[in-house]
Design a protein that fits this description.
By secondary structure, the chain is an all-alpha fold. The chain contains 5 helices and no strands.
Length: about 140
């Protein structure tokens, strides 16, 4: 018998796509069945909150404070080094800012504290911005 030629018609292409899709589906299904044979499916059922009691026991404030103190004491070297590093950063920032900046900040704060109820909040904000800008931008004292 003669074999009939398959024609490349759109119907044939659709059939090939469906064959490919069916093969992928069966492969995925086979993998899922094999997985479930190795590890059976465990169904979880949602329960209402009133049906179970929570086993979480939280310590009181005193016990938590005691625990924090024990942790700090056990790793006192780390925390002391952090304190020293913080102090060095504060000292370094204090050295690089100029005395005139401190004077202008002090003057602005003292003027605005007297006028704070008369609308002196703007001067206080100005002092804060001046402090921030002096720490962020002041590079003149770093030049040799």
């Amino acid at each position: 018998m003669k074999q009939q030629k398959k024609h490349n018609t759109p119907k044939h292409y659709g059939s090939a796509f469906l064959d490919w899709l069916t093969e992928k589906w069966y492969l995925a299904r086979y993998r899922n069945v094999r997985f479930l044979q190795r590890r059976p499916h465990r169904s979880f059922r949602r329960t209402r909150r009133r049906d179970y009691r929570r086993s979480l026991r939280l310590p009181g404030y005193i016990a938590f404070t005691h625990y924090v103190n024990r942790v700090l004491w056990k790793s006192k070297g780390l925390f002391l080094s952090m304190i020293i590093l913080y102090a060095l950063i504060i000292i370094f920032l204090g050295i690089i800012t100029s005395q005139s900046t401190y004077d202008s900040i002090g003057k602005l704060v003292s003027e605005s504290l007297g006028k704070i109820f008369d609308g002196g909040v703007g001067q206080l904000l100005n002092a804060g911005m001046l402090t921030f800008s002096s720490l962020a931008i002041d590079t003149t004292s770093l030049r040799a």
